[in-house]
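Please, why this fold?
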Amino acid sequence: MTGIEILGWAGFGVLVAAWIPQTIDTIKAGNTQMNLAFIIMYFSSSLMLTIYSVMTGDPV
């Protein structure tokens, strides 16, 4: 597995994990305000997946 593939999988993992704190906060608080941890994790994973797409030449 190459470094860029690891980056792609890491981006995917962070994207999935980002929903955990957001879901917990939504259930506890009963509202849908954005959790700061969700925003940071979502932005980071999007950046990792964008880099992966550019480096592999596969934007889909």
Q: What stands out?
A: The first helix runs from residue 3 to 29. DSSP finds two helices and no strands in the chain.
